[in-house]
Amino acid sequence: MNDREKILEKLQKIKAHAESAEKIGSQAEAEAFAAMFQQLLLKHKISSTEVEVEQLERDEPVDKFQVDWQDIRVRSTRIAWIERLAGIVARAYFCRILVHPRSSNITIVGRKSDAAVAEYMLVTLVRAAQKIAAREFGVVYRRNPFEATGFKASFLKSFTIRMAERFEEELRAPEANTNTALVRINRAEAAVNDFMGQFKKKASIVRGARHDANALGWRRGREIANAVNLHGTALEGGNTQNKALRA
Questions:
Q1: Are residues 10 and 75 in the same domain?
Q2: What is the extent of the structural domain holding 51?
Q3: Which of 113-127, 171-185, 207-221 is least confident?
């Protein structure tokens, strides 16, 4: 343990003492520990955010968590759009993914709390995208079977690409670039990348056929992706009404 790590550990203990004293109503003791905490931060030029992140790293080491697909059928083949969406969502929540040979199973690599959020978002998006694609395909097919050729594949590919763009836009937003957020992101990414280093073999990208030929499916996939509430995992559908659709 280097000197900085020792200081961070000491700060964590002081912070814990201050919180404990406050809980039992010992205000004077809590204020004394809080003052000591602030003095050490200033002396060693350490931010309170760094202390919080260090505590999180101790409490939640990076690990592997297999996605529980719940009611989504796991297939004995890799699914390109699901893998891509999983990678997008995982990175948005400071995680990475591992794929399984000859399976649509996905494993998320990250801290437990981050992986749990990523899993929830991923399962919600995959379930909703499949459901909406099937529903819209039925509408198009009943109207004109020829227009339905390749509709679902184009819809899902377009949906995934637009979701990648939207998550990237979120990361570039001003509120995502505060000092607190940047410390959190940088430390989390470094820890996950270090963990991923043990997996020497990199999985090849699974590629599907070109599925952007159905213009209607492509357009609808993008429209549905634009309606996703990234903060509430809700999907809004319809052309003239803002109706939330929860899969």
A1: no
A2: 3-59
A3: 171-185
User: In this structure, which amino acid lies at residue 168?
Assistant: E
| DSSP state letter for 148 | G
Beta strands in 6-105 (DSSP E): 63-66, 96-99
pLDDT tens for 48-72 read 666 666 666 677 788 999 999 988 9
Which is nearest to 246 in space by CA: 124, 90, 157?
A: 124
Q: Which residues of 19-53 are buried (b: 16+ CB within 10 A; e: fewer)?
A: eebeeeeeeeebeebbebbeebbeeeebeebbbbb
Name the domain count of the chain: 2
**Which residues, in sequence order, are bridge partners of residue 110?**
63
**Residue 213 or 5, more confident:** 213
Question: What is the spatial distance between Cα 50 and Cα 181, in angstroms, rounded to a whole number?
Answer: 11
